[in-house]
Design brief:
binds 1,4-dihydronicotinamide adenine dinucleotide, alpha/beta, elongated, 8 strands, ProC C-terminal domain-like fold, eight-stranded mixed beta sheet, binds (2S)-3,4-dihydro-2H-pyrrole-2-carboxylic acid, single chain, 2 domains, 263 residues, Rossmann fold
């Protein structure tokens, strides 16, 4: 399948690297962004085609990912409208930009909204897709199958995108913050940061895999670690006293509030 990318920042690069790494579908990638110095070397290093313009990406691609800053997405679609081919599928990854806002400026286009996270780069992503009412199921399934090569997917109503974006799109940063906090505690007690980072990351990876493989609710796994009268429950209670769960929920509240009222 011929894939195109407009934008070559963090999200676009994660998607392109994931598509390069997966072995389920045969894909070719064409990319353009406003920063020549970033997309041209990236394309050359990875065997992708660097296009001279956004229009050239459109001309060469069946599915085009729009991965520019959210605030630039509608204007980008407006600029692309005159050169859009009717069978091109546009896939917007922009947080907080609705299908209605995009379809308003490209009414004849086949547009889909997805929310991936950066873990798509290693085919461990979590991606939501919103199925537009006007798109045929076959076209929609084609994009679902494409995104499934990058990790897990879920179809959600667009109304759920802000919460999904918070607990999956942004959450790699929040999970990394927790890992960093564990590691810094390790440094406090004498471990090197390099060793502590690895220990904390592997522990969190194992815990996530345990929940998924055994379909365990987190609280059940927490109980398994907490020996009666032991160290873990003492740590858990101190974390709760410091407001860990409330702090996380407050962070998610702020994430959603920002998406719903971008600056
Ligand atoms: N970074 C992340 O983890 C996630 C980001 N997103 C969405 O992905 C989009 C991009 O975010 P990032 O990659 O983080 O930003 P970024 O700032 O790293 O990348 C933006 C890219 O867009 C390019 N660009 C800007 N205007 C352009 C135009 N008119 N034509 C062509 N290229 C243009 C820039 O040169 C740059 O390559 C945003 O809409 C964001 O909401 C969605 C999910 C997760
Ligand atoms: O920070 C952001 O706005 C984007 C959307 C989800 C993850 N990153």
């Amino acid at each position: 399948m011929k894939l195109g990318f407009i934008g070559a920042g963090h999200m676009a690069q994660a998607l392109m690297l994931g598509f390069k790494r997966q072995q389920t579908q045969s894909v070719t990638i064409t990319v353009h962004s406003t920063h020549q110095t970033s997309y041209e070397p990236f394309a050359a290093t990875n065997g992708f085609q660097a296009a001279a313009s956004n229009e050239a990406v459109l001309a060469q691609s069946e599915v085009v990912f729009l991965a520019v800053p959210a605030a630039a997405t509608v204007a980008l679609c407006q600029a692309l409208a005159p050169v859009l081919k009717p069978n091109t599928i546009l896939v917007s990854v922009a947080g907080g930009v609705s299908l209605a806002q995009i379809s308003h400026v490209v009414p004849a286009a086949q547009v889909l909204r997805v929310m991936p996270n950066v873990n798509v780069a290693i085919n461990q992503g979590m991606t939501a897709l919103a199925a537009p009412e006007v798109m045929t199921p076959a076209v929609y399934q084609k994009v679902v199958a494409l995104m499934e090569t990058l990790g897990a997917t879920v179809t959600l109503p667009e109304a759920n995108f802000p919460i999904f974006s918070a607990i999956a799109g942004s959450a790699p940063a929040y999970a990394d913050l927790f890992i960093d906090a564990l590691a810094r505690a390790g440094v406090k007690y004498g471990l090197t940061k390099v060793a502590a980072d690895q220990i904390a990351a592997q522990t969190v990876r194992g815990s996530a895999q345990n929940l998924l493989e055994n379909q365990l609710a987190p609280w059940l796994a927490i109980d398994q670690v907490s020996s009666p009268g032991g160290t873990t429950v003492a740590g858990l209670l101190a974390m709760e006293q410091a407001g860990l769960m409330s702090a996380v929920v407050a962070g998610i509240d702020a994430t959603i509030a920002k998406e719903q009222a971008p600056s």
